[in-house]
Amino acid sequence: MPRSFVHEARKRVGPKRARIRPIIERLQEAHPDAKIALRSCDPLQLLVAVMLSAQTTDVNVNRVTTVLFEKYRRPEDYLAVPPEELERDIYATGFFRQKAKSLRGTMKMLIEEYGGEVPRTLEELVRLPGVARKTANVVAAELGTPQGIVVDTHVRRLSQRLGLTREEGPVKIERDLMRLVPREDWGRFPHLLIWHGRRVCLARMPHCGECAINDLCPSSRV
Ligand code: SF4
């Protein structure tokens, strides 16, 4: 896109600080059902589901955890079976050897250092084997204590299209969003962008004509 056109588009929609609230409000209206698609009934199940979701779909994880959570109910259960058995039980989520290793390491640390409970802070969560910042952010937010903003492929794409960041890397994008998005919205904001990204602002063909925020978006094709 030519530079002058981008400049004009940014001027037309106004500064991002003035746009962020209406963007959140309208996306909330458009996607009142936006929430995490991974199924879980307690913090341990949530942590396991998010860890298994790397490099696969939420639908696939839900299919696997429906059976998995019947068998593995406490951290000890993941350590009570031979590693190969756990690998078999999570095989369908892909990268099963690495994921099984991370799960076993995480369960061991939960038992030894956290009394078998899932910790709530980002610093504690990222200490768990195989738990990176994105996983920790998702878990903390779902447990009601968001301490950052989850940046996945949809959040990245939409933040850039909406002119909320000019960065490419997830860490810098998250930093920009944390400066901009009101703290009370850190938990729901990524869900809104993810659902909008899946339903309307598709990667290859954004449906700008049907978009509830097209007058607030510098990339609108309308
Ligand atoms: S106007 Fe188009 S590019 Fe902008 S958020 Fe909506 S669908 Fe995406």
Q: How would you characterize the overall build of this protein?
A:
The longest helix has 19 residues, at 96-114. It is elongated, with a radius of gyration of 19 Å. The model has no long low-confidence stretch (mean pLDDT 96). It has 2 domains: 3-30 and 149-216, Endonuclease Iii, domain 2; 43-142, Endonuclease III, domain 1. The protein has 12 helices and no strands. The protein has 222 residues and is mainly alpha-helical. Iron/sulfur cluster is lined by residues 161-162, 200-201, 206-208, 211, 213-214, 217, 219-220.
Question: Could you give a quick summary of the protein structure above?
Answer:
Helix content is 58%, strand content 0%. With 222 residues, it is mainly α.
What is the CATH topology descriptor of the largest domain?
Endonuclease III, domain 1
DSSP strand content = under 5%
Strand segment count? 0
* Tally of separate helices: 12
C-alpha geometry? elongated
How confident is the prediction overall: mean pLDDT?
96
The top level CATH class name of the largest domain: Mainly Alpha
Instruction: Please provide the ordered H/E string of secondary-structure elements.
Output: HHHHHHHHHHHH
Features:
Endonuclease Iii, domain 2, 222 residues, 0% strand, 12 helices, mainly alpha, Endonuclease III, domain 1, binds iron/sulfur cluster, 2 domains
